[in-house]
Amino acid sequence: MRAQDFFLIGAPMLIGGSFLAAFLLRTWKKRSIARSIQAYRSAHDLLTEWLVGKRLLRFPGACLVSSLRHWAIAELFSLLGFLAVVSGNRSASGLAQATAAAALLGFGVAWISLRGAAREALRSVQRDLPVACFLFSLLLESGMGASSALQETSGSIPEGALARELSELVRSRSLGVHRGESIERSRRRVPVEDYRLFLNHVLQGERLGIGLSRSLRELSAKMLESQGHRAETIAQQAAVKMLFPLVVFIFPAVFLIILSPVILGLWDRLAG
Questions:
Q1: Residue 24 pLDDT > 60, yes or no?
Q2: Which of 135, 143, 133 minimizes the C-alpha distance to 197?
Q3: pLDDT of 5 over the 50 cut
Q4: What is residue 18's predicted lDDT score, i.e. its pLDDT?
């Protein structure tokens, strides 16, 4: 084989092999990074559950939060706090002070961040629950079983705290946990009254074998009505809350703009 033929055959094979090797390396790196992120997430979810169990995170809805982003922010602040303290004092006492300051700062940032996320998660459960309840009733009417209907509902509603909680409820049942126990765990994790009513309807329907679709539709309608009342209350409160910034900030500025020519004219006359 001539050198020219070898080049014509070998060059495309070399280029193709290089692209294949680069693709495999990139895929391996992505999978490695994905595994690392998943391990990091699982470890911090377990940490959150442990802190909730020890009542160090005592705010409602702490179990509904995916803690990866919040713990990452807290650990970043903790690292910055450690570096700030240890840079000024590199002795043993300075190292101890930096460690204590980093721990307190990290836990404080995590607590604030997780609390805000838990409040938003509870609001999202309240918001998505009427749709999930109505969809669940339709699936039951079509002849689907309760577990299958819950699984289908969790995949059909918007992704969020409620979808994750329903998926966890279905998963615990598939692992052999008794339905009453799995519902009780879910009731403890989600301290929302409407969600507890929804679980009570599901549990009573499964125990007594009664039809759920009609009662769930009525429950969904009541939830939507109560959400409308809450929205009206918030709108009424917003008008009252706007009085303070109007009186303190906006009205003085308006009066100053309107009266400034008069004040300047009087000042010029008095000065003249």
A1: no
A2: 133
A3: no
A4: 54
Reference 122, options 150, 151, 162; nearest CA is: 162
pTM, rounded to two decimals: 0.65
Give all domains of the chain, ordered by start, each with its CATH number: 127-223 (1.20.81)
H or E, element range at 108? helix 92-141
Q: Is the dihedral of CA 107, 112, 113, 117 positive or negative?
A: positive
Residue 33 above 60 pLDDT?
A: yes
Does residue 130 contact residue 231 with C-beta atoms inside 8 Å?
no
User: Token pair of 189, please?
Assistant: 């994790």
User: How far, in Å, CA of 111 to CA of 217, rounded?
Assistant: 38
Instruction: Report CA-CA distances (Å) from 243 to 33, 213, 252, 253.
Output: 52, 46, 13, 15
What are the DSSP calls for 55-105, one per residue? Answer: TSS-STTGGGS--HHHHHHHHHHHHHHHHHHHHH--SHHHHHHHHHHHHHH
63-90 mean pLDDT? 78
Residue 223's alpha-carbon distances to 6, 82, 156, in angstroms, are: 75, 48, 19
pLDDT of residue 26: 64
| Residue 24 tokens, joined | 């495999």
